[in-house]
Amino acid sequence: MIKKEMIAMLLAGGQGSRLGVLTSKVAKPAVAFGGKYRIIDFPLSNCINSGVDTVGVLTQYQPLKLNSHIGIGIPWDLDRNIGGVTVLPPYEKSTHSEWYTGTANAIYQNLAYMETYNPDYVLILSGDHIYKMDYEVMLDFHKQNNAECTIAVMPVPMEEASRFGIMITDQKRKIIDFEEKPANPRSNLASMGIYIFNFKTLKEALLQMADQPALDFGKHIIPYCYKNEASLYAYEFNGYWKDVGTLESYWQANMELIDIVPEFNLYEEYWKIFTKSEILPPQYFSESSVIEKSIVGEGSEIYGRVYNSVIGCGVVIEEDSEIRDSIIMNHVTIGKNCRINKSIVAEDTIIEDEVSMGISEEVSNEEFPHIYNHGLVCVGEKSRLPKGVTIGKNSCIYGITKADDYKDMHLESGKNLIKAGDM
Question: Is 359 strand, coil or helix?
Answer without folding.
Answer: strand
